[in-house]
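Figure 3 (text version): structure tokens given as input.
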């Protein structure tokens, strides 16, 4: 795998290999790679979890992380993303992690450079590393995907997480449903009544309302949205035994999810954050190392 751009590009075997590698790193610890690589994280949109977990993974792998700040780079002078990346490639970088507001920004870059590209989120398009950590958390908690009922609720049409997870979960055999205001469904069939889905869902995945992509046009107050479309305390009580709550964060407490549920016994929200480091380390290893590490070959186990 040279790049990681979209969950649509990954086969079931490739997904399984990354999940297995992440499980191994979580069991045995993340080790420094035997060869030095240079990487940089290019975030043109705000981020806490994705950016920081990549940085932690990179340090644990012994990578040389070259700082990049979008607001002080030549991008503010009009330099194209392609020219920025060609510059970084020519000065010796092996890989970049990019978050960009333009959906599909990578389409014009593929095949034009040798440096690896990892998509850290593109507009309302894809977020493959978040999807992989979500899959890892589901598999670690529930054991697999086939036949699982997964509900994704929230700002579907603007969510790269929803699109990435829908692609992957259906591919892996899960049943995926969507709950949102009708005008936020995009191309996905959706419901707007919790009673249709709450009793049968194994996974309830909440999404943040992305105000920055709505041009300030909202027909709900926060209280109205929570009452009609949020996971309230009352709805959580109706969830089936053993089902889990997920959220890619940042969380708007008492909007898409009641604040008291963020750290309840069903919630995997902070487990997702923890697992993000292992998944992102596994992705970096997979892309930077063309062959399996010797220690991994000698101790390969399937964690799930």
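Below: residues designed for each position.
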């Amino acid at each position: 795998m040279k790049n990681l751009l979209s969950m649509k590009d990954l086969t079931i075997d490739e997904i399984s290999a990354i999940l297995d590698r992440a499980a191994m790193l979580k069991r045995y610890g993340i080790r420094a790679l035997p060869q030095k690589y240079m990487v940089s994280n290019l975030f043109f949109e705000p981020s806490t979890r994705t950016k920081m977990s990549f940085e932690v993974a990179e340090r644990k792998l012994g990578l040389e992380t070259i700082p990049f700040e979008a607001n002080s780079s030549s991008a503010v002078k009009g330099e194209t993303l392609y020219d920025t990346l060609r510059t970084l490639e020519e000065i010796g970088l092996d890989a970049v992690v990019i978050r960009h507001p333009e959906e599909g920004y990578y389409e014009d870059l593929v095949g034009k450079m040798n440096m690896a590209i990892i998509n850290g989120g593109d507009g309302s398009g894809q977020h493959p590393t978040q999807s992989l950590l979500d899959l890892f958390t589901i598999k670690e908690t529930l054991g697999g995907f086939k036949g699982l009922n997964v509900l994704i609720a929230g700002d579907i049409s603007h969510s790269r997480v929803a699109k990435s997870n829908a692609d992957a979960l259906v591919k892996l055999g899960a049943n995926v449903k969507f709950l949102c205001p009708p005008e936020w469904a995009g191309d996905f069939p959706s419901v707007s009544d919790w009673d249709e889905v709450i009793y049968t869902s194994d996974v309830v995945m909440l999404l943040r309302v992305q105000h920055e992509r709505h041009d300030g046009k909202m027909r709900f107050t926060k209280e109205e949205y929570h009452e009609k479309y949020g996971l309230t305390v009352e709805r959580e009580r109706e969830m089936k035994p053993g089902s889990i709550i997920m959220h890619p964060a940042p969380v708007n407490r008492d909007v898409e999810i009641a604040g008291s549920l963020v750290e309840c016994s069903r919630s995997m929200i902070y487990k997702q954050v923890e697992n993000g480091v292992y998944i992102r380390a596994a992705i970096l290893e997979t892309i930077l190392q063309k062959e399996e590490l010797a220690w991994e070959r000698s101790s390969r186990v399937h964690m799930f």
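Residues 253 and 259 are 5 Å apart (CA to CA).
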